[in-house]
Amino acid sequence: MKLENYEVHLPSYSIGDHIYDKIGPVCESYGKTVLLIGGRRALKAAEEKIRTYVAKTNLEIIGVERYGSDCTYETVEKLRQLPVYHKADMVFGVGGGKALDTVKCLCITDDKPVFTFPTIASNCAACTSVSIMYNEDGTFLKPNFFVRPAMHAFIDTEIIAKAPAQYMWAGIGDTYAKYYEATISSRGEQLEHFTSLGVALSVMCRNPLLEYGAKALEDHKKGLCTYDVEQVVLAIVVTTGIASIFLTKDFTPDYNSGLAHAIFYALTSYPVIEEKHLHGEVVGFGVLFALLVDQQYEEFEKIYTLNQQLQLPTSLEQIEITEEQWEESMDRIPEMSDIRHYPYKVTKEMLALAMKQLKEQEGGRLINE
């Protein structure tokens, strides 16, 4: 079968504790005037450092704008109406996932050069070619895909190390999920070249976290910018972003999700999840079920141990979900779109058995005994 024509644009990035010195060499060829758009806390953390390095270049910052609170089409349109946006040759997006997704949706749609400056390590928005769009009431709307990612990502590990450690903590759970979901959802299939690359690459969404995750989080809590922190930041921000680009194409099955995400989205029916828990935190819990359902008991032991080390959830109580709510969710999870492309049908019985095994693990009995 002949595949239709396609193109792939991969992200470029710089990483380090003084990496903003690359702003001039990377950005000057795109023009002169710069508009900063970001979140309130992100701008407070990074604006002064960005200005210090921009002052050494031929660039000029002509404005600073807060992006808003959610990545919505309405927010994008408000920013598009700003006169300073039209005067700027390029935009620097500063912040977390929603801020970076907002500036990507604004600029890539308009074909205006945009550069990302992530200030936390909770997701891969700095390197992806998609924006996760929300409704005005804060509920999820849809992903908005682009042909290319931002022109370049400037990943300053010193700024990230000083951010609240909970973001990296949750980012770890969301990142190792990529490996398990990609390998399970693609199992037994003849894969296209780009999908094969994505699946092969996804192992680097798991291995560095098993090796460096516990030490990196410990260092991050102390505000230290160490080798371990850098390796985990690379896994969360860069590797996951590249893998996502390869694993998601409009004309092929989506290998970018799976049971862990199906569990997360099913549990968002209960307000406590959105109000008190982070996406990657709950996804990391869902990975335990994905591995039990898939009977990958050795991998389950690895992730269960890692979750314990990092204090990521290993029980319903830790995400404040009751037994009754879990019972209700087991009816919804098998119908979630995240597992429509799975090598087998996930059933309520599989989920119930996985919960039984998880409780046995909590009680000290090894699953694969």
TrEMBL record:
Ligand binding (glycerol): 174, 261, 279
Q: Note the CDD domains from the entry.
A: GlyDH-like
> Which residues participate in NAD(+) binding?
97-101, 119-122, 128, 134
- Reading the lineage from the top rank, the first entry is Bacteria
Q: List the Gene3D superfamilies.
A: 3.40.50.1970, Dehydroquinate synthase-like - alpha domain
Per UniProt, the keywords (alphabetical) are: Metal-binding, NAD, Oxidoreductase, Zinc
Recorded coiled-coil stretches:
none
Co-factor(s)? Zn(2+)
Which InterPro entries is this protein grouped with? Answer: ADH_Fe/GldA, Glycerol_DH
Which GO molecular function annotation, any one, does this entry have?
metal ion binding
Q: Does the keyword Oxidoreductase apply?
A: yes
Q: Give every Alcohol dehydrogenase iron-type/glycerol dehydrogenase GldA domain span.
A: 13-138
The UniProt note on the cofactor reads as follows: Binds 1 zinc ion per subunit.
* UniProt KW Zinc keyword: yes
Listed name of the protein: Alcohol dehydrogenase iron-type/glycerol dehydrogenase GldA domain-containing protein
Q: What is the lineage of its organism?
A: Bacteria, Bacillati, Bacillota, Clostridia, Lachnospirales
